[in-house]
């Protein structure tokens, strides 16, 4: 099955360069449909003609980003080596409130660029 998602330029470029191999998302209804082996088309928010296709290799489910940040390698989640010491689960609250995390949980989507 094919899914579509939007990415801001920085994570888009990191996936394209092979630096980011785990995409962090709320495990809402849209993400609950994703299965290992599915494909995801990522569109850049600033230029929809920029498209990446990736295969889903794994799905890592957690109650919230606090748990995810404790379990997954953050350098694969979009943090540069210099940023690791300052990486905080609260960074994701810019996108997903604690209430929404409590309602849906979160997922780390492990990817392989096609």
UniProtKB/TrEMBL annotation:
Stretches of the chain forming a coiled coil according to its record: none
Pfam families, A to Z: ASCH
CDD domains referenced in this protein's UniProt entry, alphabetically: ASCH_PF0470_like
Ranges for domain ASCH: 6-113
SUPFAM superfamilies reported in the protein's UniProt record: PUA domain-like (SSF88697)
Protein name, entry field: ASCH domain-containing protein
Species for this entry: Streptococcus equi subsp. ruminatorum
